[in-house]
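INFO batch 0412 | record 1 of 1 | parsing
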Amino acid sequence: MRPFRWPQGGRSFAGWYFCATTGEHIGYESWLERDRLILLDADPQVTGIASQPFWLHWHDGRRRRHAPDYFVRLANGQGRVVDVRAADRVDEAAAEAFAATERACRAVGWEFVRAGVADPVPMANMRWLSRYRRRRCLRQDVAGRLLEVFSEPQPLRSGAAVAGDPLVVLPVLFHLLWSGALVTDMISRLLGSDSVVHTARGQ
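INFO prediction complete | emitting tokens
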């Protein structure tokens, strides 16, 4: 509902993120918004994402308006509105805008989320894996071998070597980690050669 701007010397970092979920580029206005896009793109419950989706207008003694950062469609049909702002940057005006947005969402049966700074370790892991989010990284023959190899937990690099040439195998492995077909601990430590990888339950 409003254009993205890239002013020379500006303090924000706007750009376009290619979303594997939608197959389209989605705008962001800061690294924080870009990180949230990565997390939304990797969420299997998310089926659609739009940036700057609408203007919300309201009156509290004066005319007010706010454009949330994202509208998200979930697999169950539910709508979710997401505003991205670090906690230390939520001033009085922003807090009022978020409160008004939450009230409006509740009135129409949508969720509202104010997302802040993501935990640094899992976010660093997801930034790395997002490089392999595109379907071109998925080779079905290699993926099949990886799912067999990691049916029993084992270290990432040694398991990849069993599946074939690491130069061919690793991009597919990272795509499977991105998609959730393979899992490892990405919360407490950075992804590495010795990260223990295994298939997701039910895959």
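INFO post-check: The chain has six helices and eleven strands.
INFO record closed
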